# Entry
Amino acid sequence: GCGGGDEATTSDNGDAATSEEDSSGGGDYTFEVVVKSFQSTYWQAAIQGIEAAKEELGVKVNTTGPNAESDIADQVNMLNNAISQNPDGIALAANDQNAVLDSLQDALDADIPVVCFDTGVPDAPEGSVIATIATDNEAAGAVAAENMYNVIKDTIANATEPVRIGEVNQDATSANISGRGMGFINKMKELIEADGKTVAVIGNQFYVDQVENNGDEGSADVIIEVAVPAQTTVELSATEASNIMNKDDTIAIFGSNQVTAEGVLTANQNLNVLAATPDEGIVGVGFDAGATLKAAVADGTLIGAVTQAPVDQGNLAIHALYDYCEGKEVSDIPTDSYWYDASNMEEEDIAPNLYD
Amino acid sequence: MGGRKVESIKQNPLVKKVGFNRIVLCIVLLLMYGLFCALTGGDFFGMRRILSALNYAYFLGFLSLAVTFVIATGGIDFSIGPVMFCCALMAGFCFTMYGMPMPAALLISLVIGLAFGIFNGYLVAYWNVPSFITSMASMNIAKGLASVFTKTQSVSWPQSSQEGGWFRNLVTIEDIPVGLIILIVIAVVCAILLNQTKMGRYILSLGSNKEAVRLSGVNVKKWEMSAYVVCGLLVGIAAIFFVGAYSTVQPGYGDQYNNEAIAGCVMGGTSMAGGLASISGTIIGVFIISLLQEGIMALGLDKNLQLIITGIIVIVAVFADVVARRRKN
Amino acid sequence: MANKSVSKTAGTNKSFIDKMGGQQFIVLIIVIVMFIFFSAMSPGFRKYTTVVSILDYSYYIALMAIGVTFPLLTGGVDLSIGTGLICYSLIGGLLVRQHGMPVAVGMLVTILIGIVFGIINGCLVALMDLPPFLATLCTCMITRGFGAFVVGGYGIPWPAAGQEGGWFRSIFKIQMGGQNIPIGFLWIILLVIIMSFVLNHTKMGRYTRAIGSNKEATRLSGVNVKFYHIMAYVICGLFAGLAAIAYSAIFATVQPGSGAGFEMDAIGGAIVGGVSMSGAVGNVTGTLIGVFVICLLKTGLPFIGLTANWQQIITGFVLIIAVLIDIFKRKKESGQ
Amino acid sequence: MGEVILTMKGIDKSFPGVHALDHVDLEVRKGEVHALMGENGAGKSTLMKVLTGIYKKDSGTITYEGKEVEFHNTREAQDAGVVIVHQELNMLGHLTVAQNIFIGREFKKGIRIDDKKMNEEAKKLFDRMHIDIDPKETMSKLTVGKQQMCEIAKAISHKAKVIIFDEPSAALTESEIEELFKIIRDLRDQGLGIVYISHRMDEIKVITDRVTVMRDGAYVGTLITKDCTKDDIINMMVGRVIYEDPKTQNMTPKGSPVVLKVDHLNAGKMVQDVSFELHKGEVLGFSGLMGAGRTETMRALFGADPIDSGDIYINGQKVTIKSPQDAVKHGIGYLSEDRKRYGIVVQKSVAENTTMADLDEFSNGPFINKKKEKEVANKYVESLATKTPSVDQLVVNLSGGNQQKVVIAKWLTRNCDILIFDEPTRGIDVGAKNEIYKLMNQLAAEGKAIIMVSSEMTEILRMSDRIVVMCEGKKTGELDISEATQENIMNMATREIS
Ligand SMILES: Nc1ncnc2c1ncn2[C@@H]1O[C@H](COP(=O)(O)OP(=O)(O)OP(=O)(O)O)[C@@H](O)[C@H]1O
Ligand SMILES: Nc1ncnc2c1ncn2[C@@H]1O[C@H](COP(=O)(O)OP(=O)(O)OP(=O)(O)O)[C@@H](O)[C@H]1O
Ligand SMILES: [Mg+2]
Ligand SMILES: [Mg+2]
# Structure
């Protein structure tokens, strides 16, 4: 092993070349990691996991990522660059499932195993992706819906006028976000309809189109309004959240990732409508963690949020690559997502995934 | 009249023809390549890296050429990046969702680019809207239009193996950089357009003094607009090469390429004040930027460094030009 | 761009004060009409909280716009304010978050870095004679890269309200009797008054305009043109620093890599408010009114039930229309 | 004349390709008006720019008040008492008159600029100069002449010991020139040294005490004005005598057809009901004071400004002219009075400017035939004696007069039948003037019809076959050259004012 590799992220290429030769002897591997970006602290947590695995296994890891999750072309370049370093394996969190296909083919041709984490690449060339380590986003969205429904159930049941539930999604392009968004919508719809009310989903066309048996906006008891900002920026997410939270009939809102959940909180700074129950105001649910979100959950501004396991994901990705290099069998690992609120934030299996 | 002593400036004919500034840029380009080769221990050497750098150079090259025409008129266009994305998104959506044949999709990309060019050009030339405002407006319109059209979905153009994937042959066939040939050919056409034709002469002249050209009986509005139209068409082409290299475009973005495109153009000696433009300079400038981007990545350095270094190089390049001109006067 | 403005000799037979006041007036009416329209269209829009929201989101744009008015008046421009804002805020926030400095120090550093980049821009333009468009385009790239580079690419959350150091968020908004009072707006008004004074009654302002009107003539009059030219960018940098603080105070997290495009909102606001891109013409009051057009479009359109994408399209057209009204008005005037 | 206050000795200055100053000497005494004469491009402006620190000299010495000095910028020169009124107007169009005059040395009240006091001081200054300008007026709203007076007022308001006037009269009316001369005499009597640059021979005799002549960047000699004749000076300037007398009779061939008829033309408030006819082979002079609306009439006729009403006939055919394009199509060429703004494309070469109006003629399809372009440009450089290293030289690097020649070449290339020359010799030296006069006569003889707008009476009298006089946007008279005198023209030009 290369010992306490504090400087793993900047390991230089001369070393990489030598370690490559060594690698036939086993043990001393070099892996390239390409993340979506470093923008949200989520990735900081993932990298923590990677660092931990690196120390544990004594391998070398280079981590790169574009400036923003929207810089698809940059990420493709980085991935291609990673391939041309000829590492022993690549861990990839793809910003776009299609843009990386050609590169994955190249990796396959160069016999470089790829592990996808955080996000899968469903159409990847046969054999290029050896394992996918990702949250089941549909399920995670559903978790958020269930927990929210518990709180707003009575209000919906008793309502005489239609009520509104908001959802702010960062985009309509990434599989993660849309999976989560649809998971939430479908679960919420299912729960409400099970209680004999009707639901209409309105807002962003992409999400609305995917809803089966969508109700009519005019007659529905519950309206689920989906907003997508024009760009993935903090201020535009906040504007969209503000708009929904400003409506009188809104009883709950869900921000489906860190940026949009923070958008909900930003809007609330001004509106002051978030509350623990629909009677007092609007019930807010977030996703992911980060200092701002954690504080909001801890003080009850948000009734809770869903967190994924970025630390585990990073860790497992490196482990999977290592195992594969060691000739072991590897397979897909769905990682857990957890509901957390003020009461369980300190618990052992939750706390490590609540990064700042 | 008295016989004034008129000394002509002594200059090497080659230097005079190509331009000092461009020769320096070429040397910078080569030095950079050498430097990257050395720093990466030879890993940088070889076709693969060059091809990868070229991928970035194609679309950026067309964008830079496009904006060169507008800058030559003394205008500016901040909508090129978003319009490029708009072309790629709408044309791609026609292909993937509406099942249009690939040639039709490619054509649509050009047509959309052209439409934005006409829109910008008409407002600037005929209605005297400042080009900054027009481009700001069409930037918003391009983003919005593409998002509405695609329902905020990203669009992926077909892979080489898929149906319609043949269009990627425009970019590379095996390891032959077809795109480079196309880029060079179009650059030559642009250079001829700018330096050898009436259109180019009028574009450059009105960039320098529009009123004087108008009073010479020239239809300045038409020619000013034509610069934007050429720009739009080239942006449509850029869109094809973008998806040819990177497959996927996402609605709501594209502005990140504006600065690099303008930087490439200005680095090569095109003056922001209008009236002075160099196509060869633009192409070299674009190569420098894309080589830098590839090199920085190969060194495992932060992508952010590329932005910083590009910015500094442009400042140095333009400053050198300013100093050279100052010395002359 | 600057050289387009030289030698505007006789022949323009209308007073520029008329023109400027005229455009301000038109734009003010546009703001009011838009406000009435949105209010009529959407009940949500009529609420007090909506007004506060719009104000909240307008602070950073307004501050940038006030600052960028100065380079615009010299006939230049500053394209680096948007990415600069994020860069300054990231670095200031980093000191607070990672190095445990007090928030006040973080804010001070934020402003100082803004000023430093203002000086850099000013030197590039005034001392090195680079075209302002280009020089600030480069610093735009540089600040974007630099901010992300310093913080290592991670987003930086400034302390939230209620947390230690969260007091700074109440610079812009205080709560009283359950209602939010947008005191940030008072700061903006105060700054507009101060900068109006600076622009119209001090050497600084006089020379800023003079440089935009005819730089060479100003130089030949023995004015230290370089100094005042630099100062215009320094003021712009200072205001970008203030905008960075407003941004950090309003929004939860500052994301590296963002910020590109903010400058368009600010410059667009200034131009809609009557500031001329070729220099010398315009005023900060106009700028402020123009900013509200932009902000109403940005925050108002969602309220009438348009999705974000239609907003962008409409924003584009409204921008053109606002400028066209002015152009046609001027044409009519000069036709007489 | 008092003691020597300023001596420039052996001043040398080169620009790339041009040796602009070749060991030039100049000596100015207290209480004298010293004329600096020379053809266009002789280096007069350059010499003065070297003196005031705008250009850095290559060699030579400047002695001022007994000490050797070198000013690094105008500020230093101003502070030392050397002030210049530039040839090109240097004004800030967006600021007020008072703000312009005191730019760089504002009165202050705390950190506030004391605009009130500045307005008062400016008013006092104008009163002293006997001119009526409102200090609060925006500069760009003044006429060119008044702007020039403001420039002069600004120079005077410095506590100057040496004032340089670089062609101050080029933009002034006769009465304004009178005022200017009064002011200059006043300053001279106060013991200031004054350098006066002008191309107008008459003025030199009237106002100056000594004359220094330059030729081709070199010092030729210094004369006492009252001891020499006009011809002596011209001789020194160009090395030979050229002087022609006014025209006495209409040279247009009898019965030559009307090529242009303008009927009740109205355009804005500066062109009111203007009608005139222009014959083939005729030079039609347009006289009047500055601001009489002559330029506006020509711009409207040329389609540069919109026409409100009125008809234009060319060769008897009624035509619509909506843009300069239409005008050029109908064979009209327009040489504008402000060449920097409307005439030349400064960033382009001499050749490119020459063919600007007639590029179709030099193109095969969309492509430009550069060889042919250069040939023609060279032809005109020769025939107009344009001073330029080559036709590839950028026009921005030529002196004022030579720029004018390039613009003339542009219209000659186009081969228009009707040529409008608006102030064709503004700022052009005698030698070059003569060339242009010869050219105009030659063109008229070839059957071209020429309109010449000019503010110089001598020029009008010398060149025109007929004269149209305008005042305040209206045509106030039309004269045949045989009946024209300075007096009756001035009468018509001021008819409405007095
Ligand atoms: N900045 C410059 N760069 C290159 N050449 C210049 C520059 N300024 C002046 N020259 C050249 O120097 C010579 C002297 O020019 P200058 O302007 O001093 O002439 P002048 O005597 O004032 O003429 P005019 O009567 O036309 O104003 C000319 O040939 C001119 O082309
Ligand atoms: N009353 C006025 N108000 C505003 N501007 C005026 C007025 N009179 C004249 N001007 C401006 O002053 C300039 C000189 O006027 P104009 O060109 O019409 O006069 P001209 O007879 O052609 O004289 P010249 O050609 O000698 O300047 C023009 O640009 C005109 O717009
Ligand atoms: Mg001169
Ligand atoms: Mg005139």
Notes: The pocket of magnesium ion (ligand 3) is lined by residues D 44-45, 87, 166, 400 (CB under 6 Å). Strands of chain C lie at 156-157, 174-176, 179-181, 253-254. The longest helix of chain C spans residues 308-335.
